[in-house]
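Render this sequence as a predicted structure.
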Amino acid sequence: MTPERMTPGRVCLVTGAGSGIGAAVAGRLAARGHRVATAARSRDALDAVAASIRATTPQAEVLPVTADVTDDGDVEAMYRAVEDRWGPVEVLVAAAGTGFGKALVDTTDEEWRGALELNLTAPFRCLRRALPAMLERRWGRVVVIASVVAKRGEAQVAAYTASKHGVLGLVRSAAAELAATGVTVNAICPGYVDTPMTDHTVRAISARSGRTLAEARDTLARRQPIGRLITTDEVADAVGFCVENGAVTGQGINVDGGAVQS
């Protein structure tokens, strides 16, 4: 018998869906015929993403849910909103994240805690909340957006790098624990992606170094051997692969233009 593959109509939850990678992933899942709940802190951003999805996929079922995933109460309310509308979450894509550049010696305790809270603890809480229903049905897909720095060290981003190493460890441990249950857990490890977060990094590099914005952006583009930034659609394609293939689990899939070979 052929193993069960992803079929249209699953209930999906995408965090960090107000822009960038999360928005692209939500659009891809909706285009595949899945019901997609989008979560972020800004309702205006979520409404704009929903309108964009419906413009290209008129039949799309999209549920915007305002939530701060660093707040445990918001996480619970987010899941309740999805369950009340469509039933349990079957596909979780944890795309909410933050990053900043600063020397380790200048990184404050507050900045350190903030990076770990959003990049590591929030995916843990979201995964923990999704699992009971997935295990009951013996089917589920979890994809966490990590980073290429989950696999290597990089200067000036100690808190971000540590949090992404941590979330890749969470993914690998969860995948090992859940391997025989029908639930897969994977991470996508992008290089520098053309997103609003990268725009912020470009401005910070420009301010710190005196280079123009164009020069700073080119510096990040050249971090990828292909010589350009990764697109959000390229990351969304990798997420889709993990969602649709039940034999792939415990992986940190690089989408980095060849920066880290594995």
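Summary. The CA atoms of residues 101 and 157 lie 5 Å apart. The chain is about 50% helix and 15% strand.
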